[in-house]
Amino acid sequence: MPIVDSQVHIWAASTPERPWPARHAPHREPPLGPDELLRLMDRAGVDGAILVPPSWEGERNDLVLAAAARHPTRFAAMGRLDPGDPDLSARLAGWREQPGMLGLRFSLHRPGMAQALENGAMDAVWQGAERHGVPVMLLLPQARMPVIGTIAARYPGLRLVLDHLGVPSSVPVEQRFRDMDALLALAAYPNVAVKASALPCLSLMPYPHPDLAAPLRLTFAAFGARRMFWGSDLSRLPCSYRAAVDMLPHALPDLDAEDRAWVMGKGICEWLGWHRPHDAVTPAPGAFESGHAAA
Known about the structure:
- The chain has 295 residues and is α/β, with parallel strands linked by helices.
- Helices cover 34% and strands 13% of the residues.
- The protein has an 8-stranded parallel sheet with strand order 1-2-3-4-5-6-7-8.
C-alpha cells in the first residue's frame, strides 16, 4: 500500500538574496529541506509527499517546484499565489503546466486573507481554478466553514480540500472541535474533501491520542475514505514521523484494506490528479504497529 503524505512544508533560510516577508517564525530551526525530508520519508515508509510552501516564505514556489523536478515520483506541489496578482487569470490558466504543480493552497486564517474570503476578493481565484481544473487546499477554522459551502455550491467543478480538520494552530485548545458540525456539513458537497493532517498537534493526550478518535470517526463517516486524506505537517510534529503515519489507522481500526489505502495516499493522489508510480518505497518494517522509533 503506497503511503502519500498530503502536507509537508519545506523551506530555506531567510537571506538578503532570498528574504522572507515579515510574517511569523518558522516551525523549526534549521529549515527542513528536500534531502532531509527524503531520508525521513524512507525511514517512516512514506512513498510520496505533497509539498506546501510555508506562509513565512511568502507567495513563492521555487523550492517545492525544484524538489518536484528532481524527485517527480516522490514529490508534487500545491503552490501559493497572491489573489491580488494582476496576472491572476493568465497564471491560473497555466498553473498546472508547471512541472510538479498540482494546485493551490491558501492560509485563510492569516490577517487580510480572512477578509478576502468574506468580501469576494477571492472570487476570481475560484472562477479561474474551476475553469482550469486547479484543486485548492484551504486552511481556516471550523467556525468559518459555512462560507466554504457557499463557494462549493457556486463552483461545483472546483475541488476544495480543508486542512487539519479545520483546526489551524491559532485556534485555542478549548475550541478545537467546538464547531465540528460546520466541518461535517460540508461533506454534502461532492467537491469538498478534508485532510486529517497534523493530527498529533491537535491532541491533548499521548499516543495513540484517544481524544481524537471521536472527531476522526465522525469525519470518516461524513466524508468517506475517498475524501479524507492523511497528512503529517511534519515540521511541527511533537512525535516521530512513524508515529504520525501509524496514528490514523490506530484511531480507525475498523478500516478495511481498501479504505486504508484510499485514506493513506490513494485518495489524495486521485483528488489532485497526481499520477505517480505506486512502488517508490518499501514500507518501513512494523508500519501500523504500536512501537515507534524516533524520527
